[in-house]
Please model this.
Amino acid sequence: MVGTAAVLTVEGDAHAERGGSLQSKLRVERIDGTRGVVRADLLYRPESRHLTAQVEAEEPQGGLIARALQIEGYPAASLALDGEGPIEAWSGHLTANAGKDTQLEARMAVVGLDPLRIDLDSTARIAALLPEDLRHLASPDMALSLSLLRQQDGALTLRNGVLEAPAARLTFNGSLEGDGQTVSAQARLESRDPEAFAPFMGAARFGGVTARLTVDGTVSTPQATLDADVSNLSTPQATIGNSQLSLQLAPDRPSPIPTLRSVSRWTWRRKTLTTPPRNSAGHWHDRRSSRRRVPWLPRPGPSSWTNCRGPSGASS
Model:
């Protein structure tokens, strides 16, 4: 298990009480010298369709959970889930910790069974799980909320998805039809702190980015459209006041990723350009204070590249 051998004991029992109540208990314990235990206690009352659940897990430093997540120092880890209520309106509270830098708190609620709907609202501190150069994007905390619905025919719908971090905010919705093939998804990403992205941009900077992604079609042949608005994109050589990028992507044949090849269309619109003046040799002066603002030359339409082929994910 996760590269570490472990010896476990499993104990459990289940019994029915008078009145029809059903109770089950489970205990899993590690007994090879490194302590670790999981306890679960479930009680169901059929007459009221009421379910009570308690689950606890804990490990000392160096345990399997911290090793599986590759958390630096392999800190002690714990998890607790408490929930109760009728199954059509059940609610639970989950907490998890692996050291002071990895924490999760989530509230889950069942809101009806036809269709089955589960709402999730959570806050997480997960920077320690990310590569070091990405940790500042998720610091100090991230928040995730969404609603998941499942119809009787197996169709899944994701609604009101929101992922928030200090650097950016992502909203998303999507669906997978009962045939398991037809998909639809929409997402919108808005930057909040442009400086958080500076380490990845070299000398370039931007004032803000808004990107919108739409996906329709089937799992094997999705049609995707990406639109992005970028404000105040600047380099030492020039500044673009506002620019728009549009990308349409469609596979030229059904094929599993990553062997997918695509037919794409790029469109780039830009409004104004600010450049530093040139010296007598025709080279740019790199003095931002001496920039001059000039309009783009008239063109018949936006710059575009159509039907460019290349591996999925590569620039076309």
User: Anything to note?
Assistant: The helical segments are 64-68. The first helix runs from residue 64 to 68. The first strand starts at residue 8 and ends at 16. The two ends are 42 Å apart (CA to CA).
